[in-house]
UniProtKB/TrEMBL annotation:
Residues 518-555 are annotated as: Disordered. Residues 267-477 form the Sulfatase N-terminal domain. The keyword Methyltransferase does not apply. It is found in: Cell membrane. It is a multi-pass membrane protein. Keywords: Cell membrane, Membrane, Transmembrane, Transmembrane helix. InterPro entries: Alkaline_phosphatase_core_sf (IPR017850), OpgB/LTA_synthase_biosynth (IPR050448), Sulfatase_N (IPR000917). The lineage of its organism: Bacteria, Pseudomonadati, Pseudomonadota, Gammaproteobacteria, Oceanospirillales. It comes from Litchfieldella rifensis. This is Sulfatase-like hydrolase/transferase.
Amino acid sequence: MHAFPIPSWLRQPRWWALTFLGLCLGHALISLMTLPSSLTLVVTTIWLLLAHKFHWGSPRQPHSPKRVLPWSLLPLALWWVYLYLADSFGEVDLGAIFFHLQAGMAEHGGIRRIGAAVFYTLAAFLSLVSFTWLVRHDHRWRLLERVLVLFLLATNPLLFGITQRGAAIVTEDGEWFDRRYVEPRIIERPAKPPNLLVLYLESIERTYGDRERFGDAYADLHAIGEKGIVFEGVRQIDNTGWTMAGMIASQCGTPLMPAGLLHDRQFEPLDEVVPGIDCLGDLLSEQGYTLTYMGGASKEFAGKGLFYHGHGFDHVYGREELAPRLEDPEYLNSWGLYDDSLLNMAIEEIRKLDARQRPWGLFALTLAGHAPTGYPARACMERQGEFDGEDILYSVKCSAWLARDFLTRLEEQGLLDNTLVVVASDHLTIKVSAWEQLIEGPRENTFILIGNGLAPAHIQREASTLDEFPTILEAMGFTINQHRAGLGASLLSPAQTLVERHGEDEINRRLREENALQQRLWEGLAPQRQAEEPPPEQVTETPADEVNDDASGIP
């Protein structure tokens, strides 16, 4: 019996190396440009045709192979890092990377990405080996790759972002946001302050409400919105696009600018999160509220426990405290509790809080919509049928239904009397199965207010999650300074938001240059700012600001 003959060209390392490099190039292009995966083979074929035409790896006038290490190995490796991040998250947020490195990534539930990390590491290693072979055996590539080094370094968005942020150190105006920051302050309280229930729906952005693109996945949230105020146009600016940043934006009215080089102890974890500012929890605690946070994931991940403990909360419950309460101790996902378990426990907690003679606030964070595929609960599978393990719209529908069922049960038990309910996405989703449909047009966050005498309405404003903080305070009946708190403006007032006044692009550009607000956030961990005169009551403007801003209103 004769073995199947292997073509001679397949026995040459040249074609193995070139084919693998072609596949890597194809994967990179379709990942970065969001193209169909089938085009990988097209790119690879074009690459191999060029290799054949120009005799790459086997020049007609060969030089002796040289045992050299290409200059471009490190830039290529850095591109692989970026490709992994882009494939995992869709958009690479350097602020999120820096913050998680300092706040801690232990106890995370991203097990599904471990396989991808192994794949990318192996592919990167093999591509570097293949490229090294090509450079050593083709003197033309030895000359070309020295230019390639500069190209790879100049075009890598990861390095561009780091360089851009570093340039902020010497910016002419690093106080643009800090000048606009209004200290959160309650001037007057209602006679009977309402309770507050904040339900963060992980990654369930309002964009899913487009029925033409996503069918009825968001239908239950549309039904929830019919009972209250639905805010349309709540955008996501930079440094607010991950869970901890989203919660800080909506509770503190500021983007989460990582401590970065301001942190005195670079190789130690943070022991406080944004200690320099007052947030919603601080203000409500001063008003006599009992405050509780509940989340199915670990409170140790990304500094959630540190943030809530440090900003007025009496009880902070994560997976560590809640998992032992489960009837079935095996009913957990890689992050923690499923949402049906969490919300059942939240009802019990609200029942206890409501029995006390003082106002309460409960903040809960769900998991069902977590990218890349979501974590639909058992209760959803009984209602929606089998989950294929990939379809994010299944998980979106699950999250929306669980939220509606949760509020319905609370209402039926009389636990929402004199209570303002906030239903919000913590941030826009990262890369999921419906990614191409999501990025077809402008995206916006979910933000719904129900109860406390609010009449049902739809309010269209160009806003950001920074504006949720003062909006919640005014919806609760509190009078606040200038209808503002932090960098946010109440969407129930005529005060202009930063997005309305300056636009997203300008805000994001200014964020890349800001230093003073970063120092304010991390005061105590960061080097102290030089003594300054007390800040004025009104927001000030520089001559450069006045060129672009109207004379009326507060920027």
